[in-house]
Amino acid sequence: MITSEEIKRRLWNGANELRGSMDASRYKDYMLGLMFYKFLSDKTLETFKVTSGLGQLSENELVDEYAKAKTEYGDGVEKMIQGVLRYYVSPEYLYQTWLKDINSGDFEVQKVTDSLNNFERTIAVSGDASDFKGLFSSSTLDLTDTALGSNLNERSKNIKALILLFADLNMVALQKGDVLGDAYEYLIGQFAMESGKKAGEFYTPHQVSEVMAQIVAKSSDIKSIYDPTVGSGSLLLTVKKHLNKDVQKDLAYYGQEKNTATYNLTRMNLLLHGVRPEKMTIKNGDTLSKDWPEDPANPNEGVQFDAVTMNPPYSAKNWNKAGLKVSDPRFDLVGALPPDSKGDFAFLLHGLYHLGTNGTMAIVLPHGVLFRGSSEGDIRKKLLDKSRIDAIIGLPNNLFTNTGIPVVIIILKKNRKIDAPVLIIDASNGFIKVGKQNVLQEKDIAKIVDVYMKKAEIPGYSHLATREEIKGNEYNMNIPRYVEAMDTEISQDVDAHLLGGIPQKNIDDLKVLQVLVPDVLNSCLQTIRPGYVTLTKPISELTSEILNDASIITMSDEIRTKTKNYIKQYWDVLRNVDKSTDIVNLMEEMLDSIKKILSDYKYIDVYDGYQIIAEIWKDALSHDTELIASSGFYQIGRTREPNMITKGSGSNKREEQDGWVGSIIPSVLIAKELYSVELEAIENKRNAIQEIESELADLVEAAKVEDSEENNALYDALKKNEHDEPGDAFDNKLLKEELKKAEKDSEEYKLLKKVETLINKKSSLTKDIKSEENELRNAVQERILVLTDEEIDKLMYKKWFGYTADKMVSLVQIPLKAELNTLTMLQERYASTLPDIDMEIDSLMSEFEALKKELVVK
């Protein structure tokens, strides 16, 4: 079975190979458009099969039956399908018909154009035009575009290759597990990274979407959601993912998008994620120029939504081309228009206008909205005075592909108490670097969401700003005014520099050591004068004592036991997942559980533990549970699949099978756990080769030493470069020639023979290793098929959780080692006193004077 990760990789690799020099933001329209047409064709065939009561047929047989039915019953067959799906694809225009033409050599690009146009016409005359109209318009999918190829033959070749990329994917089956939607979303994200600045038109980075979606989903009862700058629809779909299945079924999706190609992308994306057409209302239009959606019954309120999410264009210039006035109901709340040069607050006010009384809004904007003055300052003041801003979350810079500037997420609500404080979160330092981009890890997202939900104050990270504070700052909401960065620099102590010793106040600041191991710490400190101490033993010895202290051992053992119990709790659950299991919910439950376990320990960072489990899901569980749900734990454990490798390059580039690999159990793990004796034998031979290579290297170096015994015997057997300079190895041919010339039993002959023996032994060992590795590889590949249930249990436990307990225990040492490093730094800082430095200066001066006297002027 092909997994979602494999589909993603295959499609993206295919996209990279096929698009050539075409701009990624443009190529995505072709690739994703044709992928969606395959989905429509597959859905049409599936519906025909079900409604006609046909049994198991091959895809080609099904296409033939569909064509026969149309010939026999006319339009009635298609109307029946349309009654179920609200659309249909005629038999002669199916994606599968294109594939037949490709296989028979009758393919023409015009057939694809005719198919897309026919779909547009069939939709236009139905009552469902708004759902699908214009999806394949020539402005989006222009198959005559020379970027696809400079002539018809080139375009035909490239379009055929793109069609074949989706040929074997059953889009209906893939949609049921949301695999298809995930692959589509993945491709959108990959195209965004390739598109650079153009990505801002259609994509919000996944980790930013996650922060917004989780906050919105956890803080409101959501039945409807609206994104006024919907892009590809990723924000709407991320919110959906965090709602339970029952809520998802009835969720109403609204969105508006100015760019037509992106508007089409949104509708395709939602439909591929299983959103029913009647539940989505997406409009192609300018959000700011004219309000939408409007409520005819309440013209001054607009349609209200339980959740509003948006990532609008940053600081859009000339946004007010429609000449809107303050009287526009969207701006009535603040009684002011945002400046024409920056549309940030215009988007915010539009979204807020459509937010329901008990709803939550999340919007991404540039930092400038927090402190810019003039009309923006007035708008910010009104929003704060009316208590609409609930939280401000500062994110790291360089998160987006289209801009390197830092951004903020602003959370807004209408049901806040008038004197409620505003939560300020500075999450700007929580990220890792991946390539050129900064990326929020799962733990960073979890911390932001938790702090928001708990309205928690954490020094250096979050603060609840009161109305008085905000007024005192003249409504300037720049984050550093409210969240002061933690000063980790320890100030210098003049007395300690002059007289030595570590200041006692610095020792008192080592809070973790003082709380967890105060006796061990204080037993190695000696007071040398009031307020100053010195260490009585080396830091290495102190570190060992602390990490082996009974209280630390007890805590570590406790965490190890709790971790093993935690794994035991989920082990059977994970092994028994099936198609009814909510995998996302299971993952979130496991992540929440580990946080609860670690929260009992004051000095352990629970989010580091959270990240450990998140990475197990990312690296293994997401892939494996998908396969287990489809085939069963032990069956998939005994399943292998071809190991495909790429060979050749350019026009000769091809994929070939190179043996087999386990579907979920890695071959290297099977070898390590079940063939340890064979692995050890191979490793011993490798070590023997290393020893031989070391001995040969010594002989080479000795041969280069003039007048040495080795030089006389071996120099002429060394490899030489074009300048006749000796290299770093022996030449076998020269070695044999020298052996023929040397007298037997002479020292020269013995040395040459020694080299020959070593080289032959190395060659023999290398052959043995290759042979044994092949035997082991074959044995492992066959063993996959006959693994016992007990072996599968052992191997999968090792794969998923082999080092989890150790990693959790290591969290105990992190804060301890951090403070021990501080102690090391303090000891080194004050190790040299002023008298010591003076003595060193005097000594150096004396040496200098002595050297001066030795100088003789000639």
UniProtKB/TrEMBL annotation:
Please list the reactions this protein catalyses. a 2'-deoxyadenosine in DNA + S-adenosyl-L-methionine = an N(6)-methyl-2'-deoxyadenosine in DNA + S-adenosyl-L-homocysteine + H(+)
**Kind of enzyme, top EC level?**
transferase
Residue intervals of the DNA methylase adenine-specific domain: 176-488
BP-aspect Gene Ontology terms: DNA restriction-modification system; methylation
Enzyme Commission code(s) on record: 2.1.1.72
Q: Where is the N6 adenine-specific DNA methyltransferase N-terminal domain?
A: 7-164
Q: Which residues form a coiled coil?
A: 675-782
Q: Which domain of life is it from?
A: Bacteria
Tell me if S-adenosyl-L-methionine is a UniProt keyword of this record.
yes
GO MF annotation terms: DNA binding; N-methyltransferase activity; site-specific DNA-methyltransferase (adenine-specific) activity
Q: Print the keywords alphabetically.
A: Coiled coil, Methyltransferase, Restriction system, S-adenosyl-L-methionine, Transferase
Task: Spell out the PANTHER family in the cross-references.
Answer: SITE-SPECIFIC DNA-METHYLTRANSFERASE (ADENINE-SPECIFIC) (PTHR42933:SF1), SLR6095 PROTEIN (PTHR42933)
According to UniProt, the name of this protein is site-specific DNA-methyltransferase (adenine-specific)
Organism per entry: Clostridium thailandense
